[in-house]
Design goal:
Largest sheet: 8 strands, mixed
Helix content: 25-40%
Structural class: alpha/beta
Strand content: 5-15%
Number of helices: 14
Shape: globular
Number of strands: 14
Order of helices and strands: HHHEEHHHEHEHEEEHEEEHHHEEHEEH
Radius of gyration: 25 Å
């Protein structure tokens, strides 16, 4: 965050009688209220800002403490000051644009109004997603082989062929490497020509919603389940029907016969509860889809992280010509910031998926694809997965011990020996899990309320905690902090 554009008047005759401390406080407060400084963003260290503005460090510290006292910023031990998510209500601006009332602007679409309502009304902006300890979906950044990654980037960064346009379907060497990996590791029987590279899994879900369903059709989603799937479907005018989960994942016995066009599921590690469908259950699910002429979107989001057994083969490879669209990404196995995913689709649908991607999102960045292709081809990907699997198993076991020690009688872990997160259910369901998450975040920890993964109002209360990107000390402190909050 660069605040060197702040100008303070050192001489009293030019400062309207305001001290340097008052000037800086009012300037920062205005930047926060006008959303020039975004919610969740970190203020510069006092030493750095003092040097940039030519004032004493005591002046900056005094201003930061005043901002904290009035609710504009929060302090996190050992980390600094962050813009508060809950600003003082009396200071909130009623308009997004100064000088023009919101109602005088041209209107939004019906879908735009739905999103505006969800975001909290006029003047609000999407919250920044902080990479806090226990945030769900984050791999261990410290364990990532960054030196090898940088070498591969340097290798490809000056290649002219990667500076222009290439293919909407995706970089051919990456599709070749992916086909080999999926056929060996996940039991698929796919060809590179069946793979479509996407900008993350979310674009893959959006393409499936656009091409496999019409507005007003009904899709089946897991309950609880991945909210990204619900968002992709709802944004395309799709009606949702929730399917409850059983001990191993989606409750196949609860699937009724009917005119359903699509089912989204996570059979290898149910999200977020962690169940794993057996091979026989997967075959039952495929038979149901065949009978009902229903597409299955198989989200294989973290299948590599099973700790005491090999993962069961993906449904997409269990039988010939199954009505399955297989979806994966590199967000968990590499880095979420890559925004790189893929679909494996039946050969007769490749053309229409590529055309739809061209219409909606264009090409996926070539340099990223080339680096990932070499990362896989040269064996770095497999070595990284082996190391990560061993590391995450140790963290998973540590989480289990901590929960037994500090949360016994308060929360019950839904223990499955797989994945990068742990779901915990409150023993007393009257607890407000969203409020607990907010209070936990104020202490510097992430996590998600379990109720947010439900489509219907009949939700369980609990927390979903990601442990992959945590240190041992953070896990100990976080679980102790959670116990104290409860």
């Amino acid at each position: 965050m660069d605040l060197r554009n702040i100008h303070l008047q050192q001489k009293k005759q030019h400062s309207h009688g305001l001290s340097l401390t008052q000037q800086l406080f009012l300037t920062l407060r205005e930047k926060i209220l006008s959303q020039q400084l975004l919610v969740g963003s970190r203020l510069p260290a006092s030493r750095i800002l003092a040097k940039d503005l030519g004032v004493s460090r005591n002046t900056v510290n005094s201003v930061y403490e005043q901002l904290r006292a009035e609710g504009y910023v929060n302090s996190r031990e050992g980390s600094g000051f962050y813009i508060s998510e809950q600003l003082p209500q009396f200071d909130r601006s009623p308009h997004i644009a100064k000088g023009k009332p919101v109602q005088d602007w041209p209107p939004l679409s019906d879908y735009g109004h739905q999103l505006l309502k969800r975001s909290g009304g006029h003047g609000s902006k999407p919250k920044d997603i902080a990479n806090l300890p226990f945030s769900v979906g984050l791999p261990d950044f410290q364990a990532f082989p960054i030196k090898i990654w940088q070498q591969l980037i340097r290798r490809h960064s000056d290649r002219p062929v990667l500076m222009g346009y290439h293919s909407y379907q995706g970089y051919a060497p990456l599709r070749n490497a992916l086909a080999d990996y999926l056929n060996v590791s996940r039991g698929l029987k796919c060809r590179p020509e069946q793979i479509v590279i996407t900008q993350g899994a979310q674009q893959g879900l959006a393409l499936c919603a656009q091409l496999l369903m019409n507005p007003g059709d009904t899709a089946l989603v897991e309950e609880p389940g991945y909210s990204g799937a619900r968002k992709a479907l709802i944004s395309n005018g799709i009606n949702l029907q929730a399917v409850t989960h059983g001990d191993n994942g989606i409750n196949i016995g609860a699937l009724s016969e009917g005119e359903y066009r699509l089912l989204c599921c996570t059979p290898t590690h149910q999200y977020p509860m962690g169940g794993i469908l057996t091979a026989s259950e997967r075959l039952q699910l495929l038979q149901w889809a065949e009978r009902n002429r229903c597409w299955i979107v198989e989200d294989d989001y973290d299948s590599e992280f099973h700790y005491y057994s090999q993962p069961i083969a993906a449904m997409a490879g269990m039988a010939e010509r199954t009505p399955v669209i297989y979806m994966g990404s590199f967000s968990k196995t590499l880095l979420p910031g890559l925004r790189l995913g893929y679909l494996v689709v039946p050969e007769h649908l490749v053309g229409v998926f590529v055309e739809a991607k061209a219409f909606s999102g264009g090409e996926t960045p070539l340099l990223t694809q080339a680096v990932v292709a070499d990362f896989i081809e040269e064996g770095h990907f497999y070595r990284h997965l082996r190391r990560s699997r061993k590391l995450y198993q140790q963290k998973w076991e540590h989480m289990q011990r901590l929960c037994e020690k500090h949360l016994a009688g308060i929360m019950t872990p839904v223990a499955q020996s797989a994945g990068m997160h742990l779901a915990l259910v409150f023993n007393h369901q009257q607890v407000d899990d969203r409020k607990v998450c907010q209070e936990f975040a104020m202490k510097g920890f992430g996590g998600s309320p379990l109720s947010s993964y439900y489509h219907s109002s009949r939700s369980q209360k609990g927390l979903v905690l990601g442990f992959a990107n945590t240190s041992e000390g953070e896990r100990v402190k976080g679980i102790k902090t959670l116990s104290q909050l409860l």
